[in-house]
Prior knowledge:
Layout: H1 2-8, E1 25-29, H2 33-36, H3 41-49, E2 53-58, H4 63-67, E3 70-73, H5 79-92, H6 98-104, H7 118-121, H8 161-168, H9 174-181, H10 185-197, E4 205-209, H11 211-214, H12 219-233, E5 243-245, H13 252-257, E6 264-265, E7 269-270, H14 281-288, H15 298-310, H16 334-342, E8 348-352, H17 356-359, H18 363-370, E9 375-380, E10 403-408, E11 417-420, E12 425-429, H19 442-456, H20 466-470, H21 490-498, E13 500-501, E14 520-521, E15 554-555, E16 583-586, E17 591-594, E18 691-696, H22 704-707, H23 710-715, E19 720-723, H24 725-731, E20 738-742, E21 747-754, E22 761-763, E23 766-768, E24 770-774, E25 808-814
Helix pairs in contact: 1-12, 5-9, 5-10, 5-12, 9-10, 16-18
Amino acid sequence: MPGLGTSFGRGGATTYLQDLQNADCILIQGSNFAEAHPVGFRFVMAAKERGATIVHVDPRFTRTSAMADLYVPIRSGSDIVFLGAIVNWVLQNERYFKEYVTAYTNASSLVDRRFKDTEDLDGLFSGYSAHGGYDLATWQFQTNADGSVKRDETLRDPHCVFQILKRHFSRYTAETVEQVCGTPRDLFLRVCETLAANSGRDRTTAFAYAVGWTQHTVGVQYIRAASILQMLLGNIGRPGGGIMALRGHANIQGATDVATLYDLLPGYLPMPSIARDEQTLSAYLRSNTKPTGWWANYPKYLISQLKAFYGDAATKENDFCFDYLPQISGDHSTIPTTFLMKDGAVKGYVVIGQNPVTSGQNTELIASAMERLEWFVNLDSFENETSSFWKRPGAEPAKIGTECFFIPAATVLEKEGTFTNTNRLLQGHDKALEPKDDCVSDAWFAYQLGKRLKRLYADSTDPKDRPILDMTWDYEHEIDAERLRGEPSQRKILQEMNGFDTRSGEQLSGYADCKDDGTTACGVWIYSGVCPDKQTDRARNRKNDGAVSLDWGFSWPANRRMLYNRASAAPDGTPWSERKKYVWWDAGKREWTGYDVPDCIRDKAPDTPAIPGASGMDAHSGSDPFIMQLDGRAQLFVASGLKDGPLPAHYEPLASIMENAVYAQQHNPDAQRFSRSDNPSNEAVDPKYPYVLTTYRITELSGIFTRYIPWLAELQPEAFAEIDPDLAAKKGIRTGEYVTIASATGEIEARALVSARMRPLRVGGRVVHQIGVPYLFGDYGFTKGDTSGAVIPLTAEPNVSIHEAKTLTCDVRRGRRTRNG
């Protein structure tokens, strides 16, 4: 999210899957699109049928590669070098979209004269502390007396973003790509020319990525690098362009939107923190409300959310119960919490629809940490490795004091609700059949738990119990709650997310109706508009008109399919070209119109000037397309919001097969290694582990759910490891034999699949072998095998605390591993 969010203003995909068919070129990197997202991949194939060029950059030749016009091999963990070199090539050859860059990005903004780049500090930016972490003071922009950013529209000032960008990426060259990525120089230059030739006024290129980019200790900066490149090429907010962030599950986007992350409230509103001055409502709003741009409306969304949470109990006099919200006191993400659990500082653990003992990293540490709990609850459709951690090989159940509860869960076919998919699209789905026996939906579990807690605390006079007692919790099903065994009403929940007028009870038509005086309640402001009245649920719309399809589901925000679509028109409001016409200014009607919901103020003319010193949207001109940003422009250089740099810089993975050839700084200086005896990891460059290991998913299996389906298990009967023929010959390994993959963290065994899909690369003057292992196996189900998580240490990227599972180092040998227990 921060990679896209800091670049453009929102953390979601900038485009939508159906629009990929309008692309002239699609670069797929960090994703095996065809296998991991096969339904959406049909739009890539539609683009190909229309003549688009498909480029796939990946360590492994996959089904996506087979469908691509150009397959480009790369060493896992070197993507910033690859992307950075394209940025350099585009700048040096002046193949960027000049009018777009000048008008719609912060290329002309002047950065603090004290700023020092990685070229000056050999891999670090100015402000880095010897104790770790950056002071961002020197990353800020120079400002005028009225607070606006100083600019140099000629782009010649050495302190302007454009010149900083040119200097920063100058060391990323085609030769560097060949030496660091292992990608042949001529093949890399073909990619550069292909992207540039398919970008500009009349042509557009789309990027698509998935967890192949995110699961790195520099994952956020991978996405930043792609964002910078798409800004330079002028592909954001335009049909056939954008960045498609491919989420790995039907509702991963929705789970993020409605705040499964510990540091966010629904709709990406930050959770209050004791690390900031946010202990009162007024202080919190000062901390998070932006003076200019759309985020100047922040108080409306937060106060409306508090009204949705606490109803009549939330009043202006008590700061709308702001004190009920928890205050973050540290990093409470999954990985640090696992260590706290292992150290006995966590009493209880609720796991819903997750299986961390196989899908996590250092899985033995996770399982042993659960032994220290007082109680544990697992809600799942099948017995799995997490629910049964206490009887894993080597465990001693008699010595484990954790009280375990397994709640049998309904499958997706046995419950109704909505999914929010990879392109921010809410789609309703019906229940196909009743849950078996005593299986319940996760919504039932949450609703009934809330009701029981309310009854439990009903007579309490303790102030700390008021958040539970005052919580709005009336979601009884409107049909027959008793027949439905207490299932809550999904419609009532979605209507509360949409929001309503607290006086009349009428639904809000959209988030623009939210107010900060307590007269509106809105659970998730970005979803407002999905239920604009009591009879309408736009998530259930199913009209496909073959074009933008505004009547198929509901896409947040405001049913807008393509974000930042004001950029699909030139500054004067006319389309960049007739062929790429999308949203434009209708001078006759004095409004923005087009094929989508305009991502701007509908009646704000393109020649409207920004008002100096103004607040909110008045500070933006009519030609500023990125309304969530302070200055209305896309950010090539990010002054705040990221912990590890305003620009992407190449750092090697924490465990690599080579020294950093770009900077002296070996790895991301703010990456978290968690060095402790129960989390052993390979050295930065460790001769005992000379091979690159990468992990991936496969179409036939998606974890515990599919491992219990016999015909899918038959297609993938056992865990396997892909090894290139040269390495197999060197090690005496044949297809079908058992091999052991080893790291300092642990060992796993798998069947060898000797395949040319894994190709040796020449990197830094030597041959590098890469091994691929699917991460979907475990001990339960009809198909079994070791989980790749057993050889991956727990590490974390500094911005979002995501693990590094896509690139590490290992050794491989013939034969089966040594068994425990």
